[in-house]
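Below is how a single chain appears once it has passed through the pipeline. First comes the sequence as given, then the structure the pipeline wrote out for it. We keep one example in the README because the format questions we get most often are answered faster by looking than by reading.
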Amino acid sequence: MIASLTGTIQYISTDRCVVDVNGVGYEVFLSAVGLSKLPETGAKLFLHIHTSVREDAIVLFGFAELVEKDMFLTLKTVSGIGPKLALAVLSGMQMDLLCQAIGSEDIKMLTTISGVGKKTAERICVELKDKVGSILPITAKAASVGTSTLEASVVADALSALLNLGYSDSVAREALAKVKERAGDEVFAAMPIEQLIKEGLGAVS
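Resulting structure:
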C-alpha cells in the first residue's frame, strides 16, 4: 500500500491533484483544507496517503498533516461512511471545530456539512465521541486553556508532558487553566515550560 508520496505537483483540480514521482503521475484526492495548503504547480511536496482498494479501482487520498489522515481513517470506521464522505466531512469543518462538535454531540452543527444527514451525524457522535480527544492536535487543545498564539506552543508542550505522565486530557487542561487563573495572564504567558509543568502538577495533586 502507498503510505506517502514525495514529488512535484503536476496538476491541481477542484478536488484532486496529480503528483509526479520520478516520471509517474499519481492522482490524489484531497479535502478542501488539504487543497488550500498545496504549493503552486511545479513545486515539491510531501503527502501522507491512504490507499483505498476497490474491485474496480485503486484510489489515493492525500493529507498534508498526519492528524488529518488519522481523522479520515477514524471517520471511515463509522457505519455508512466511506472514503468520499469522510473527505467531505474534513472539507466541511475545521479540525478543532469538528472534534468539538463530535465531543459535545452537536448534531445541528454536523448536519451543516454537505452529505451529512441527521442519522449520519448521530452515528458519528455515538461511535466517535470518546475517540476525538486522541485525534485533536495538542495545539488546538491548548486553545481551550485560553492561550494566545504566543503562549500556545509552550502550553501545548506542557499539555503533552502532563498527558505523557498519565493524566487525562480534561484533567491536564483543567490544571493549566487553574494555573493561569491563579498566576494571571501576564505571569502565565512568561512562564518557562519547566515551571508550567511543575505548577500544573501542583494543580492536580
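The domain at 66-134 is CATH 1.10.150.20 (DNA polymerase; domain 1).

See the next section for the split statistics.
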